[in-house]
Every structure is written in C-alpha cells, then in structure tokens.
Write a structure and sequence with these properties.
By secondary structure, this protein is of the alpha+beta class. The chain has a single domain, classed as Aminopeptidase, CATH 3.40.630. It is 29% helix and 39% strand. It is built from four helices and seven strands; from the N terminus they run E-H-H-E-E-E-H-E-H-E-E. Strands 1-2-3-4-5-7-6 form a seven-stranded mixed sheet, sandwiched between helices. Bound molecules: coenzyme A. The site of coenzyme A has 18 residues, from strand 4, helix 3 and helix 4. InterPro entries: AcTrfase_RimI/Ard1 (IPR006464), Acyl_CoA_acyltransferase (IPR016181), GNAT_dom (IPR000182), YpeA/RimI_acetyltransf (IPR050680).
Amino acid sequence: MFIDDLRLEYIDAIYEIETMSFSLPWSKDSLIKELDNKNAHYFIALLDGKVVGYIGLWEIIDEGHITNIAIHPNFRGHGFGKILLTSAVDYCKNKNFYGITLEVRVSNTIAINLYESLGFVNCGIRKKFYTDNNEDGIIMWKYFR
Ligand SMILES: CC(C)(COP(=O)(O)OP(=O)(O)OC[C@H]1O[C@@H](n2cnc3c(N)ncnc32)[C@H](O)[C@@H]1OP(=O)(O)O)[C@@H](O)C(=O)NCCC(=O)NCCS
C-alpha cells in the first residue's frame, strides 16, 4: 500500500467510497474544496494505483480533528484503516499537537474498536449529533501531552 496526499484525480474515487460508507456523505464539491483548504490534511491509501481508503483531518490551532475516514467495502478488515489512522496520529504528534479528536456514532462498533486500539478514549457525548437518525456521537480524544 502507498500513501499519498489529496489530489484532484482521486476525488471521484473518494466520493464513491464516501457514498458507499456514510448515510450523510460529503458532497463532491466539499471534497474538491478541501484541495484549497490550508488547514486540511489527507492521507490517501492506494493499492496498485487505485484509491482504497482515505483519512482527512483539520488542523485547528494545536489540535487535529479527524473529518472522515473510510475504506472501500471490498478492502475492509485488512489493516488499511489502522495504517491510515496511525499516519494521522503520527502527523499530529510530529506537529507537537495537544491531541487528536473525532466523533463517532454510538452504533459504529468497528470504528470505535479501531480508535480504542490506537489509544483514543471516550470523552463525552454529542446528543443527536447525526441528523439523519438523531443518533448520538461519542467524542473521542487521544492526547499527546
Ligand atoms: C472503520 C473502518 C475505517 C475501519 O477500517 P478497516 O481497514 O476495515 O480496519 P482495520 O482492518 O485496519 O482494523 C482496525 C481495527 O478495527 C477493528 N475492526 C476492524 N474490523 C472489525 C470487525 N469486523 N469487527 C470488529 N472490529 C473490527 C479492530 O479493532 C481492528 O484492529 P485489530 O485488527 O488489531 O483487531 C472501515 O470499517 C470503514 O470504512 N467503515 C465505514 C466508514 C466508517 O464508519 N468510518 C468511521 C466514521 S467515524
């Protein structure tokens, strides 16, 4: 697997994975705007030149906020999600950030397992955070200092 930065040529594949993975997917326009967002950083997982997954984060002062992470359904369970999350964590650690955070649906056991496996902890609940079904979001943090 090869990890690259976000490029325009990857947007169609990312959008396809996004729509296969989320009930509230980002629009293609929002993804394209990320190319010019100086505070956004993406890691794109490529297998034989094809996008199989991605993780995005926003740098907010000295915090990393994960915006999205998804692996193509055909490639889940092979460790790619963990490699991408580790890349984002290491990136934030190297920038001497205070920590890295994200929100996850309370029902998303697989993602919660992934985050906990890398040391993220439950720090609170955003009530009815997800507008499609009013599901609560767990706020998770991994602190570096
Ligand atoms: C969550 C997601 C990114 C994980 O990516 P992945 O490549 O399938 O995960 P990995 O193979 O790297 O596994 C990493 C960890 O996730 C957990 N995990 C993965 N598959 C699992 C499963 N079927 N059941 C339970 N836990 C699982 C395990 O903790 C695993 O660590 P381990 O192998 O050391 O036990 C992927 O399932 C996905 O794209 N889901 C849809 C989008 C999504 O929900 N994103 C998160 C939004 S907050």
